[in-house]
Structures are given as C-alpha cells and as structure tokens.
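Quick one: structure for this chain?
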Amino acid sequence: LARGSVLRPQAHERLPPVFEPIEKKTGSMAETAYLQENVGEALKMALAAMVVDQPDDAVEFIGTYLVNHATKHEREEARAKKYASLAESIAVSDAAAAEVAAAAEARRTASDPTEAEAELDKELEETDDVESLYPQLMDAVRRQTGCTAAYVGVKGEKEGVPLIGFCGASEGCDMAGNVLKGGIGEDEPAEGVTFDLFQQREEYEEELAAATAAVEEATGPATEAEAPVAEAQAAVDGAQAAVDEKKALEGDDADPEGLAEAEKALEGAQATLAEAQKTLDEAQKTLTEAEAAKDAVLQYPSRAFVANVVREDRIKFFGIPRCGSYCAAAVKYDSALHAEGIGEPVPEEPAEEAPEAPEEGAEPAEEPAPPARAPKNQPVIVPVERVLCVHAMGQAKDLAEDKQLLVEAWAKKLGEAHARADAKRWAASAMLREDAAEAAEARREAASTAEAEAATAAEAAAAERTEGYGEDGAPDGAEDRAAAEAAVASAEAVLATYADALSELARDKIPPSEAAVASLQASLLVCGVSSESCASFTGAPDWAKAAAALAEALPTLSGEGKKDFVSLIAADADGSAPLEGVDVEAAKAAAEAAPGDDGFYAADALAKLSAWAAALAALWDLVKAQKQAADEAEAAAEAEDD
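Got it. Here's what it folds into:
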C-alpha cells in the first residue's frame, strides 16, 4: 500500500458482529422487496437529508434520522388511532343524541291530537251532552298522556260524607261505577289521595294575605297618579287653546312673538303630561301585576300526584296493585242544572228609540233581525266538582311533568265544555217549561173532556153488561172487576192527553224537586223500573236516569206501542203470568210515601201518571183478593167432598 493510504474494510466487515452478511442471490428480489417495503422510503429520506446536511458522521446522522423518523411515525399512528377513536365516540354520541331526539319527537307527537281527536275537540265545543263523549274523551286522554287508563268522576255527598263516583273510563278500564269515600275528621280519613284536590292548601291564607297587601300597596300610587294626569291634560288643553287663538290673529293683529311663546308653553305642558302619564302607566302596571298575582294564588292544589302507587299507603285500589304513577286534576265549573236553577225574571231592557224616518225618496232602512229567543228568567248558578284521573300502573315509571300538565289542561277543557253544555241545556229546558206553562190550561181542558168521555163509555159498558147477565144477575165480583178496569181505562184516557207533557218532562234537563222525582219513580215501578236504577252513586234520585226511564216507558203508555196493562196486572195478581221486575206492593208503598210537588210545572202530568198507577194497583188488589177468595172457596169445597 502506498504511504498515507487508508485500508478500508469491506462493507460486510463494517456491520455489527450480530449481523451476518447476506449472500447475494442472483435473480432473487425477495430481499430487495423486503427492504423497499420496510425501510426504503425512510432510508431515501435519510440519505437525501444527509446529502443536504453533509454531516461529519454520516452513519450516526442516518441512524439518528431513522430513530427520529420511527418515533415520529409512531406518534402519527397514535394520533391517527386517537382521532379515529374520537371520531367513533362522536359518531356514537351523535347517534345517541339522534335517538334521544327521535324519542322526544315521538313523545311530543304522541301528545299531539290525532285527526279523530281534533274532530273530537270540535264536537266537545258544540255538544250539549259531554257525558256521551266520555268514552272517546278518556281514550284521548289516555293516549296523549301515555298512561294505562283515564277515568272521570263526579263529587257528591251522602249524609254529610263526601263521595266521588266514577262515571266514565277509557277502554279496558273498569273504574266506572266505583265510589271513593271521603273522610270525616281525623278518626275516619278519606279513601285515597284524590280528595286532597278539594282540601285548601296550608299556604293559601298566608299567600293570599301577602298578595292582598301587595294590591293595597299598589293601589295608592295608581290612584294618586291619576290627578296629575288630569291636571296636565287640562294644562295642555289650555295651552293648545292659546296657540289656536294666536294662530287665528291676522294682519296687524298677528303676534308672532306671542305665538312662539304659546307654542313653547304647549310643548312644556305636553312634556309634563307625558311624564305624568308615564308615572300613571307604571303605577297601573304594578297594580295590574299585583292583582294578577293575587288571582294566581291557588286555594286548592292544581293536581294530586303519586309517583309510585304501591309505595303510598293512602292509595285506594280497586284491583291488583301494580307499580306506576297516579295523577288527578279537579274539573270545576258552574251550572244551573239543579232543582232551584230557575231564578228571578230577566230585567227588562229600556225601550230603544224609534229610528228616524227616512228622507223623502230615500230607500227605507232594512228591518233589524228579531233577537233570538231567550229564557225569561235568570239562571241560578252553583259550583259543580268533578275529577279527571289517570294512572300508569303496570308501566313502572313516573308520569313526566309535561304529562301531568296535560292532565290539568284536559281537566280545564272538560270543565269549560261542561259549563257550555249545561248552559245550553238550561236555556232549552227553561224555554221548554215556559211553553209547557202556556199549554197547561189547554191540557187540563183536554183531560176533562177525556175523563167525561171515559165515564160515559163506562156507563154504556155497564148497561150492556147488565143486559147480558140475564135473570141470574152478575156473577160475584164481576161488577167490581169491571168497575176497576173502567177506572184504569179512564186513567189511561186522561193520561193520553198528557203524553206530550210527559215527553217534555223527559227532555227537561233541569232536575225537578226530590218530591216530584219520587212521585215519578213510584209510578214507574208499575212499569218495571226500579228505584235503584234511577239513583245516583250517593243514593239520591238521579234525574238524568229517571228522565231516561220515563222516555223509555212512554211508548208503552200510549200510542202504537201501548201495552195492555189491565191484562198484565191482572195476570200478575192471579199468578197466571207474573210480571218480571214489577213489585206492585212496593209501588203502592212508594206512591203513599211520595208527597208530590204541586208547585212543579209538570205537577198535573205527574198527578195523572200517579192516578193511572193507583188505578192499576187497585185492580191488582181486587184481582188478588178475588183469586184468594176463589182459592179458599175451592179448598173448602174439596174439604167437604173429602
């Protein structure tokens, strides 16, 4: 070797001892492919950087570069995985949020009325018979609240004990007909929690006193602020008059300086008025808000709510207890549908001045349409209390706040519907009674005529019977039987003249007095209508049920569907064909106990109905007595033969 030359080792000799040289395989590209795939790109970048930087220690540079490259690559991979994981989490979160939003929308949509329920709302606004819509209404409440059942009850009283009788329910719910009993003092608490709706809130007196004080405090400033406004208005009017006066001056009399001063005084007066008016408006706003706050003080709870009925000891169950919520809201409204519902006459309005005569040649003014007929008397209003209830038993979940508010909204809607319907019913019934009063005299005359004709027919029939008896005369008891049957025929003839009056009574929605209802019920017993079927859940007479029973019985009393009550009663009395559901003895006892109501507008019609029932009862007594006498005689004859 030449002096100064360097002996360079072969490439394979410079490798670390742990590596073995790779024998070059001619024609094989496996190693090249491996290197290209795993370190090719990184090595290219390292060599390029080395060429650019030209470091002193190229090997160390390349090694450091590759290490840094690997570290950077690992960080990028970790960052990519993190971003991918984050993106996946965001996607999952978005999907969950979308699911929650979809569920919320589904709940909101579920609360919205369906097409049929929207039609039901319109019908509810127009109807005069809300009770007939209870099945559809309760189904709508149940669906919109997502509850298991919805039902409605009416609050009443029996012997001083408050009761709630349930009278309508959604499909599949058997609450209708059940009764809740209220409490009598601490010793006998109320059944359930529903009666809490009618108990005054403990905070009411304190809140009302505070609200009343706020109203009184706001009243003074509002009253005091009125005088400055009036004074400022007077000042403005005076200043305006002065301006107008100055403006009216012309020529030599014109006073520009005086006009300017007057206008300046007007502006000042207007500014004072604006300030005074602002003070008054603010004081009146404060007073209005105080009055609204006072009106908003709740005397009674807005609703009764139990999150889980199986954990509430006071809950009254009418079936198997199951987990779920219960919510009830009071349905309150005013009604004149009660026995004392017709009040004093409506005050007469002052007569309107006659319109001026049209000028000659002018077309005459159109005649105003006559006012719609209205009752002559005023209604006497009393409060009515019902209750709307829902439960979610079997769902094991709380009823959400918005659903509880929906129950309150439905209760308010029901109260308004009942108030409208009762007002319509009352007006129609009041005018029906007015018409009946006008027709009363004509009906009495018709009844007298019918009674006279029946008496004449009875005399003719008696004469004909006498001729037919022959020399032996009438059989024992035959004339008594004929007279009893003639009395029934006469009562039926008279009753026929009051068929319209009884039909009107059946359509009357204003309940009669209890005495009048008792008289009607006693007569209907002969027709197979039990007193229990005409009683409310409190045991008192239910006029709606009694009127419906009368309407159903009327076709059997007269007209084409008239029954032969003479034959039916006689067959029941002699035992040959007992009448199902008819207890004549009970009817007689009820008739004796019923005092009647002579002051009732339909007293004549009820009296004729009672007379007919009494005639039938007398016939029944006679036939029964004759049958008993005949049986005794037959038994005595058989005993003699033996």
